[in-house]
Amino acid sequence: MEKFGENMKKFLLAGIGTVAATTEKSKEILDEMVKKGELTVEQGKVLNQELKHNIKKTVKENVNVSWKASTPEELMEMVDQMTPEQLEALKAQIKAKEEKDSQEAQAEEQAEACGTEDE
Questions:
Q1: 3-state SS of 64-104?
Q2: DSSP secondary-structure letter at 49?
Q3: What are the per-10-residue average pLDDT scores of the chain (119 residues)?
Q4: What's the DSSP call for residue 38?
Q5: What's this model's pTM, rounded to 2 decimal places?
Q6: Nearest to 34 by CA among 73, 8, 42, 62
Q7: Is residue 28 within a helix (H) or strand (E), and if so which, with residue range?
Q8: Sign (positive or negative) of CA dihedral 85, 51, 21, 11
Q9: What is d(CA 65, CA 75) in angstroms, rounded to the nearest whole number?
Q10: What is the DSSP code (8-state) at residue 107?
């Protein structure tokens, strides 16, 4: 289990390094274009921000690091490491799951009630 965690850490760091390198390279290219007069400084800044946003979005959509907690303590440790945005997303997901489970339970109760009336 320890080796798995270490490999996941290496994988995550490699992804972060790739994003950082790509961002730096895009900044270099934009700076070179600005020097050549192909873009104004403002256009370069806007384009660089768009590139950063697109890179983050692409990484978020395509890089899926799955953390599995084998004990409640490990799960609590993972929650402690979450950002406020991640915590809000987790809360929303929990709420949606609870609502779905509640609806399914009500549907089962209604189905059982209808089934016993027919007998």
A1: CCCCCCCCHHHHHHHHHCCCHHHHHHHHHHHHHHHHHHHHH
A2: H
A3: 71 79 83 72 80 78 63 80 87 92 88 67
A4: S
A5: 0.37
A6: 42
A7: helix 2-35
A8: positive
A9: 15
A10: H
